[in-house]
TrEMBL record:
The chain crosses the membrane at residues 43-62, 74-93, 249-268, 280-303, 587-606. SUPFAM superfamilies: Calcium ATPase, transduction domain A, Calcium ATPase, transmembrane domain M, HAD-like. PANTHER family: CADMIUM_ZINC-TRANSPORTING ATPASE HMA1, CHLOROPLASTIC-RELATED, PROBABLE CADMIUM/ZINC-TRANSPORTING ATPASE HMA1. InterPro entries: ATPase_P-typ_cyto_dom_N (IPR023299), ATPase_P-typ_P_site (IPR018303), ATPase_P-typ_TM_dom_sf (IPR023298), ATPase_P-typ_transduc_dom_A_sf (IPR008250), ATPase_P-type_domA (IPR059000), Cation_Transport_ATPase (IPR051949), HAD-like_sf (IPR036412), HAD_sf (IPR023214). It is a multi-pass membrane protein. Its main location: membrane. The keyword Phosphoprotein applies. It is found in: Cell membrane; Membrane. It comes from Ureibacillus galli. Gene3D superfamilies: Calcium-transporting ATPase, cytoplasmic domain N, Calcium-transporting ATPase, cytoplasmic transduction domain A, HAD superfamily/HAD-like. The gene is cadA. This is Cadmium-translocating P-type ATPase. Belongs to the cation transport ATPase (P-type) (TC 3.A.3) family. Type IB subfamily. Keywords: ATP-binding, Cell membrane, Ion transport, Magnesium, Membrane, Metal-binding, Nucleotide-binding, Phosphoprotein, Translocase, Transmembrane, Transmembrane helix, Transport. Residues 128-229 form the P-type ATPase A domain.
Length: 632
């Protein structure tokens, strides 16, 4: 019984979804039967059938046109079509009027299908959210409960192959996670205890237990869906212009049709029937249906394409502006670079063992929270160097650390802390050479002098180098903004391949630099982490946040890259340029078809059925051309 009810429900849903198409096809079938009746002399029956075709095929569009006119107090193309069909029937062209209604209804049904195509991308995303989850409570067996009943703090079990039902932190287990639904990145990410996982992503191989950290309505996945839905409802400047133009154009067409109802009779000697008929043809062929449909389907398809590839546009306006960028300003830390320092060089005094010395240094640094200290500890773990317990340390803020171990004292920090002259002379002035390479150097000193030198550097991302290259190929200059000193900035800029750099740049001064770039380059993009770069992101023509799946990035920028991958910017710009190209093609094509049909009508070489086919056919073609944006 339940299966039968479900099947009936699905059937009803399918009928509702395709009701416009069903009405159009039914209208066409009735028109064909009416024409057969007319040819067999059954005129009364034929007229009744034609009227039925008018009502069935034209009801939806007539209602839409009337409601839109009343609501916005602006004339629209739907009214033009209805008037043309009524006018045709008044002069006895029932067949032509019915064909007009049929093709217009069919065109409208296909347009609705095309528009819904991009919305279905978001619906498909929403379907990725699980409806049930395994809830763990104490020693009891996990029980399956609706996701809607879960609360923050609940412990959830996620088995291999299951979608993660909520945002949370792993408290047990290790697994590979497919995060493509959020980031667009096909490569799985290995997650372990302490790391965050997101609703809608897939647990591939291990069994995980997570602590739910956010309510279901506030998950990152839900925010992405909301953001894309909001972007799809926001119209680009081009679309807004077309919609304003539509109302004025329709008034102009009605005025032209009004003049044509009698002027050709007196000026060209046409009979009244021909004059009225040609006025009705003008009403059809001059309608801007194709022009109106030139932009929105392409924009919606491009936004859906971006979302599928981990690029979130906050509206059509930002997508449109991307195509005109001349310069991209890029924050260094966490954007061009990894964002955390890595040990690159180690020099130990000749009388000391390198492994033992590094064990002492790593043991001292393990008790500090500074990023440089963490880099040294990470290096020690990578090299399987065991740390020592029982070292006493004293933190000297802004300078370094003092340590005591086994009756020996140590100083760890910058050159001024351990002794500037000794540090400079150590290992034949090695520190100076390393600093020129853009590296940060720290020293460890014992009772005999400088014991070791460690150089560290925030390394340039491999994908960043490729991204800068791709942007240059697109004709976009890349400028790096960084708070680092001149030497470090120059080294990173050279490695990344950017056109220019500005060093010692404070977050508040980045805004001034962006303003200067706007004067010299007109359209400027800014890429940052979405937190301290927020003012600069807001000042730029388009602000782009390196999201990494963070909520802050979703709030601050115009475009969000859900993975810290600069190459996605080049993809987004190509997407924008392709969309602009398709929009221009659509506008040029639709205007050309309108002009050709109007001229053909005046020289009486196109009749109403062919005018309808040419006009509505062009509308369908521009919609299908716009849908090419769904493909990469």
């Amino acid at each position: 019984m339940n299966t039968s009810n479900r099947e009936n429900s699905n059937l009803i849903e399918n009928i509702k979804e395709h009701k416009e198409l069903i009405a159009a096809l039914l209208s066409g079938l009735i028109t064909l039967l009416a024409w057969r009746m007319e040819t067999n002399g059954l005129l009364t029956a034929a007229v009744i059938a034609y009227l039925s075709a008018f009502v069935i095929g034209g009801y939806a569009k007539a209602k839409e046109g009337l409601l839109d006119t009343v609501e916005n107090k602006t004339l629209n193309v739907e009214l033009l079509m209805v008037l043309a069909a009524i006018g045709s029937s008044l002069i006895g062209y029932w067949t032509e009027g019915a064909i007009l209604i049929f093709i217009f209804a069919l065109s409208g049904a296909l347009e609705s299908y095309a528009m819904n195509k991009s919305h279905r991308e978001i619906s498909a995303l929403m379907n990725l959210q699980p409806e049930e989850a395994w809830l763990v409570r104490g020693a009891f067996e996990p029980m399956k409960v609706p996701v809607s009943t879960l609360k923050v703090g609940d412990h959830l079990l996620i088995k291999p192959g299951e979608r993660i039902p909520a945002d949370g932190q792993i408290i047990k287990g290790t697994s590979s996670i497919d995060e493509s639904a959020i980031s667009g990145e096909s490569m799985p990410v290995t997650k372990q205890v302490g790391e965050n996982v997101y609703a809608g992503t897939v647990n591939l191989n291990g069994t995980l237990t997570i602590n739910m950290t956010r309510p279901n309505s506030e998950t990152l996945f839900q925010k992405i869906i909301t953001l894309v839905q909001s972007a799809q409802s926001e119209k680009s400047p081009s679309q807004q212009f077309i919609e304003r133009f539509e109302g004025t154009y329709v008034k102009f067409v009605l005025l032209a049709v009004g003049l044509m109802l009698f002027l050709p009779h007196y000026l060209l000697g046409w009979d009244w029937t021909t004059t009225f008929y040609r006025a009705m043809v003008l009403l059809v062929v001059a309608s801007p249906c194709a022009l109106v449909a030139s932009i929105m389907p392409a924009t919606l398809a491009a936004i859906s394409n971006g979302a599928r590839n981990g690029i979130l546009f906050k509206g059509g306006v930002h997508l449109e502006l991307l195509s005109s960028l001349n310069l991209l300003a890029v924050d260094k830390t966490g954007t061009l670079t990894v964002g955390t320092p890595t040990v690159t060089d180690i020099i130990v005094r000749e009388d000391l063992n390198e492994k033992d010395t590094m064990a002492t240094l790593a043991s001292i640094e393990s008790q500090a929270n500074h990023p440089l200290a963490q880099a040294i500890v990470k290096y020690a773990k990578k090299e399987n160097i065991d740390t020592i317990q029982g070292i006493e340390i004293e933190d000297v803020p802004g300078w370094g650390l003092k340590a005591n171990y086994n009756h020996h004292s140590y100083l760890v920090g910058k050159s001024d802390f351990v002794g500037s002259e000794e540090a400079t002379n150590f290992a034949n002035n090695a520190a100076e050479k390393l600093a020129e390479e853009g590296k940060t150097v720290i020293f460890m000193k014992d009772e005999q002098g400088i014991a070791a030198l460690v150089a560290m550097k925030d390394t340039v991302r491999d994908e960043a180098k490729e991204a800068v290259k791709l942007l240059k190929e697109l004709g976009i200059e890349v400028a790096m903004l960084t708070g680092d000193n001149e030497k470090t900035a120059r080294t990173i800029a050279k490695e990344a391949g950017v056109n220019e750099f500005i060093a010692e740049c404070l977050p508040e001064t980045k805004v001034n630099h962006i303003k200067n770039y706007l004067q010299t380059h007109r359209n400027v993009g800014m890429v940052g982490d979405g937190i301290n770069d927020a003012p600069a992101l807001a000042t730029a023509t388009v602000g782009i946040a390196m999201g990494g799946g963070t909520d802050v990035a979703l709030e601050t920028a115009d475009v969000v890259l859900m993975k810290n991958d600069l190459s996605k910017i080049a993809y987004a710009i190509r997407l924008s340029r392709k969309m602009q190209k398709i929009v221009k093609q659509n506008i040029l094509f639709s205007i050309s078809v309108i002009c050709l049909l109007i001229i053909s009508n005046f020289i009486q070489v196109v009749d109403l059925p062919f005018g309808v086919i040419g006009h509505e056919g062009s509308t369908i073609l521009v919609i299908l051309n716009g849908l090419r944006m769904l493909k990469s």
